[in-house]
Structure formats: structure tokens, C-alpha cells
Specification:
Elements: H1 2-46, E1 50-56, H2 69-78, E2 81-87, H3 91-102, E3 109-111, H4 119-123, H5 140-146, H6 149-154, E4 164-165, E5 175-179, H7 180-186, H8 194-206, E6 218-220, H9 234-238, E7 245-248, E8 251-254, H10 261-273, H11 288-294, E9 298-303, H12 317-324, E10 330-333, E11 351-354, H13 356-361, H14 363-376, H15 379-387, E12 394-397, E13 400-403, H16 409-418, E14 432-434, H17 440-451, H18 470-488, H19 494-504, H20 507-525
Parallel strand pairs: 1-2, 1-3, 6-9, 13-14
Antiparallel strand pairs: 3-11, 4-11, 5-9, 5-10, 7-8, 12-13
Length: about 525
Amino acid sequence: MKRHTRGLVIISAALLFAYFCAASLFLYLDRMNQNGDRAAAASVSSGQPTLQILLSGTFPSRLAEQDDFIKTIIEQKFEVNLDVTTAPAGSDYTALIAAKLAANNPPDMWLNITSDGGAKYTLDNVLADMTYYVTPSTMPNYFKYWITEKELKEYQVHNKFARAPIPYDKKSYHAYYIRKDWLDRLGLDIPQTYEQYVATLKAFTYQDPDSNGTRDTFGFSTSGNGTSISTDWPEYVRHGLLAPVYYSEGKLIDMQTDLRVGRVIDDIIKLTKEGVIDPDWFLNMGTQHIDKAVQGEIGVVLGETSGFALDSNPDSLQARSKAINPKADWMPFNPFGNKQPLRAEVSANYPFVFSNNTAGGEPEKLMKIAGILDWLASTEGFLLTHYGIEGKHYTREGSRITLLPTYTDNEAAAMELWSFFTPNTPEMLGLTVIDPRVTERDKLVLQTLADIPVYEGLGTTLTPPIGIDVEEMRARQDELQVKMLFSDKSGANWPQYRQELMSSYNGDVILKQYESKIRSSHKERQ
């Protein structure tokens, strides 16, 4: 009876959660429709076109429209009204764009944050042909500073020019971070080998590294989101599998489907049995493992951004941890020494796309948007969206920018939103930035990151074969790998599970398509 009752409670809770999510999305869409109506009215009254743009980020309530100083500047400069909708990246964002497309009311421009990079939308003729809008003449700054014409060509999907890459930081900041203050307290050095790393995890778990007299710390954590292993585990690198994919000896190595994954599973199971891993890692959602690290519960996590643990970044792991424990000291390190790459070179990520509806009915709007995006890619737009207003937030002497970092919450939120189009890499524009918040420790962190080698990149963007659902294959991949962890408790069955992916879920077809594109790209470079 108790088991039956508990099952009913779980089912009821799941239904209630689903109802809440659906109701929240409905209310959110209703609010967005009301905002769209107001924007349309503003367009009629002002005589200026209204451009509808969908970006990933925080909800509009965080940034009052009248306080978005960058939006105001753009509207005045380009004589437009901007109707900007934001939603958090992930399921909310995907559901929002799907709902707008289903209602035949897509935004004029949006960021296509989907796993296939817009391949399906391209085939469905939802996306506009960008040939007339994204060119060296219409977007000169985009091509001068950020993206080459060759990169753009490699980025196309299904031989159609329906997407263009957001400018991206070409440096890798992929590194593991460790509580250096815990090491010092225990008399340990930063690990340089995998064996030393495992010994450190044990010390962090069983030797009371925070000296509070309680066994309440663990060596490593990540977030499995209740669905997958997570690619954060150093055990992938231990077996020669680098994130996310790489090309070696004429073959594509996909870290998540390679035959060596079975050995990775065995290593994870072994560490879990030794009790040195956060026991809730699989159920951790999003950045929950980072929150635990901030609270002093975890000793090693993976970071991916340059500011991940900088003193000068108020939202960093380091700054947040020090607010709780002033002695906290997170330092980047490579568990395999200074010669082992942890990942392949960075490549272009998600694209921006234009609506085919707008291209057919109001193409001049897309030309306006192209102009705005190119301005964001210019020196003027970059400085405004990353550092603020000259004289108020920074001073300039030629190419030397000295920050005066005193931002209101709304100013900081506006810059966070509008810097979506360019990474914080001023050197690409020939600028040198002096930030008084940067500490000597920050400089050491950045130099350590720069010293971690990366593996040669693919040289092209991978796109799936026409009509094949990569997500279906990845979903089954996750199911089978989770099964090995929690049901099989062994990686021994991976070869047969992998064969199922290759034969029944088009894995072979997908990987062959990827390899073919890489070989073609390599031939063009020779």
C-alpha cells in the first residue's frame, strides 16, 4: 500500500509540474504577444519599422525597457523600434521559438540555439536566404574583425546559406579548477597526473580539507541533469577522448560514442564506489554543482570561460566562494600535466538566422537588422555593449581603453544582453583594455589557461545528413550510458550498445557524413 501511495504522489507531482510549466509558458507567450501589440502600435505612431528580435538571456522583468540605454541608442541611430524578447537558453527558448513558428509569427531575427544548428528549419524553408543580407559590403565589420568568408562557407548547411555564425572567442578556456587553499591546508601539490588527481579527490573527501570537523566535502562534481553522464569527467581525457570531437589519423573521434566510452564508465563507477564523487551529481541540474562548489562542498569542477574564477568577475566561482569563505582560492589545472590537451580547438557555435516570412514581405527590415548587427561588431558597438559609455564607464586614449567599472544593475544587464553578438576579445579590434579590478592572481589564472594545449580543430562545422535526427541518436546514447552506470554497473556492454546506435539510430550514417565533410575541408586547405 505504501509503495502504491508513493507512486500516486510521484505521478501527481509530475502532472502538477507539467501543468505549471505549460501554464507558465502560456502566460509568458501571452505577455510577449501583448508586448508585440504595443511594439506594432509604436511602429505605426512613429512611422519607423519595428524589428522583432529573439535572444537568449534573462526574462524582460530583469531589465525594464525604459532603462535599456543600449536599446535606446540603437533605436535612435538606426531609426527603428526594437521589440526584443528574451528567454533562458534551453527548453524555454526552444519552446518559445517553436510556438512562434507554429503561430506563423516568427521574429525577424533570432539566435538558433538548437542541437542541429538550424538544419531542420533550413529544410522546412523557415529560414531566409541570407545571400543579400550578410556580405562584406552589407556587414564590413563582421567580416573585417570576426568571421572570414571561408568560415562562413564552411558553416552552411545542406548547401543553403540560411545561417551565419555569431562571432566567437577562438581561445579555449577549458580547464579543471581546484581548491588551492584546501591543498595548502593538507600539504598537497596541484595534481600533475591522473593518479595524483584521484589521490587528491580522496584527501578532499576523507581528510577534512575545510577543517570544520565534519565529513561534508567531496572531491569532484558535475551535473547530469537526470539524463546523461556529462562530458565534464576527466576520465574521458584519460582514455584519449577530447571534447567535443576531433580528427585523428583520418578518422573522426566522437567522444560520446567512441568504443573507449566503456572504459570511461568503468572509471566513473570505480570513483563513485570510493565515495569521492558528489553522490547527487547525476540529479544536479544546470550549474547546481557550481553552486555546491561555491558553498564549499566540492573541491574540483570544470570551467569553460575566461572569467570563470577571476577576482575581477563578481559573478565568478572565485568571487562567490570568497564571499562565503575569504580564504577560498580556486586555481585552474590540468590533471594530466602541461602537455596533454583537454579539448579540441574552439569552433563556431550557434548561428543567427532571419525569418523567411520577413524576407518575402519586408526584406528592408532584414537589411536594417544586418546593419545593426554589423554596428555591434564594430569598434563603436563593441565598446558600448561591453564597457559602456565613454567618459562615464571608460576613458580612451587611441587604442588604450581604461575602465571605470561603476555600473548600475540596469546598465550591467543591458550590456550583458547586447554583448550577445561579440565575445569580450578587444584584441580582435586592436584594443588594449586596462581593468583596475584585475588582480595579480587573475593574471596568473589567465596565463595558466593559456598554457593548456588544445588539439587541432576540425576546420569546418559539422552538419547532419538530410532527414536524419541526430537528437534521437544522442537521446538513445544517453539512455544506454546511464543504463551502464546504474543498472549494468559496468561498461562491458558498451560495444553492443554502440552497435545499436550505429545500426538502428543512423550513427554510422551521421559519423560518415561528418568525416566526409572534414576530408573535403582538409582537401580545400591543401
